[in-house]
Amino acid sequence: MLTHSMLAHPRRRKSDVPRVLVLSLSPTETPAEHVRNALALLVLLVEQAPAVAAFTPELSKVIYRCQIAVQLLEARALTVPVRAQRQAIEAAVEALAKVPLDWDACPDIPAVTVRLLRALWALPREEPRDLASDLVEDR
Question: Which of 10, 28, 61, 104 gives 20 to 30 Å between its CA and that of 36?
Answer without folding.
Answer: 104
